[in-house]
Write a structure and sequence with these properties.
about 375 residues; Rhopdopsin 7-helix transmembrane proteins; GPCR_Rhodpsn_7TM; glycoprotein
Length: about 375
């Protein structure tokens, strides 16, 4: 009897142990790991990333971002289709619109995957396609932000230099080359993510071949170069823009007589100064935090001995939070179109049957009229 009871107790303990192991396995997650440096590893249930922040908070935020981004970018596409590509700035903005639309359509897949509502097939699609497109469009936007900064700097420093058909053609070729380069760069991430998952609790890295993991590292380094080189470009360009606008404002203020009639032009110029730096603000809010957070996050994944589980989880959550800031780019870019592009505002107001001076308090009438110096006008005008 004692032997039988002992056997029963052992069986019960085995059943309980198997149940706990199954529960622990269900708590392991498969983080999105695809384009640049999201190649992560988990150490079992103690390092589980399934928490309220990942499975509830971010899916809700991305759902809201999808609805707002879809509305704003639909309006942007609708307006830009009515605007001819008559300047470098408009060409760059149209490319950013396309990138934002593609990024916006990746949000529902991220919502389903993060909230653990996606089927195995949909999760494979996220690993192979959706995440690749998300990061592809992010770095396309970063590159065009750098080009916009160069264009704004050129318009500020040499305001009388015109735009020719040959220059516009070269900018279109440059835009096509950027898309082609990044598409070719990211395509192997799709092709080489083809392994069949051996468990329903797989990570995206489990689907990659050996060549896919190597190419993943190559793409990671290329994306780092893209970001940091464009960060330097943006800082240098806006430093030069700041100096030129300060000189222009000082000359204009020194040549006027103080009085009530000169206050409105000066207020408009100050508004224009603020609008010029909108590109800089969006770049720093959306892209800089993510790339700074990726440095300790990547270390926590590659140097596992130096980081305990709690620290790894913290850096993972920091990376996901800053990644959401990068996603905000898709809804903040329409602000750039509206405040910095006169053609966009004009077309939008005509379509909505609003007077041209609408929102002049926000945009500054200097960008719509001939008020102010050439440097001020050209730094914020779309043409």
């Amino acid at each position: 009897m004692k032997t039988r009871s002992s056997v029963n107790v052992i069986k019960q303990h085995k059943i309980l142990l198997l149940g706990r192991m199954a529960l622990m396995e269900r708590n392991t997650t498969w983080p999105l790991s695809l384009f640049p440096g999201n190649h992560s590893h988990t150490n079992g249930s103690t390092c589980s990333r399934d928490n309220v922040l990942k499975t509830v908070v971010f899916p809700v935020l991305y759902s809201f971002l999808f609805l707002v981004g879809l509305l704003l970018n639909a309006v942007a596409v609708w307006v830009f289709f009515r605007i001819p590509s008559k300047s470098h700035f408009i060409i760059y903005l149209k490319n950013i619109v396309v990138a934002d639309v593609i990024m916006t359509f990746t949000f529902p897949f991220k919502v389903l995957s993060d909230s653990n509502l996606a089927s195995t097939g949909l999760r494979i699609f996220v690993c192979r396609v959706s995440s690749v497109l998300f990061y592809l469009t992010m770095y396309i936007s970063i590159l065009f932000f750098g080009l916009i900064s160069i264009d704004r700097c050129r318009k500020t420093l040499t305001p009388f230099r015109g735009t020719t058909a040959a220059r516009l053609a070269r900018r279109k070729l440059l835009s096509g080359a950027i898309w082609t380069f990044l598409l070719v760069l990211s395509l192997p991430n799709v092709i080489l993510t083809r392994k069949t998952p051996t468990s329903p609790y797989f990570k995206c890295s489990n689907l990659k071949t050996e060549g896919g993991l190597y190419w993943h590292e190559v793409v990671n380094h290329v994306c780092q170069v893209i970001f940091w080189s464009n960060l330097v470009t943006v800082i240098v360009c806006y430093t030069l823009i700041t100096k030129e606008l300060y000189r222009s404002y000082a000359r204009s203020a020194g040549g006027t007589v103080s009085g009530e009639s000169t206050q409105k032009p000066h207020q408009a110029k100050r508004k224009m100064n603020a609008n010029v730096f909108l590109v800089l603000a969006v770049f720093f809010v959306c892209f800089v935090p993510f790339h700074f957070a990726r440095v300790p996050y990547t270390l926590s994944q590659t140097q596992r001995v130096l980081f305990d589980c709690k620290l790894k989880l913290f850096f993972f959550q920091l990376k996901e939070s800053t990644l959401f800031l990068s996603s905000l780019n898709s809804v903040l870019d329409p602000l750039i179109y509206f405040f910095l592009c006169k053609s966009f505002r004009t077309t939008l107001f005509k379509t909505l049957q609003l007077p041209p001076g609408t929102c002049s308090r926000l945009t500054g009438r200097g960008s719509d009229t001939d008020t102010g110096s050439n440097a001020l006008r050209n730094s914020s005008a779309c043409a």
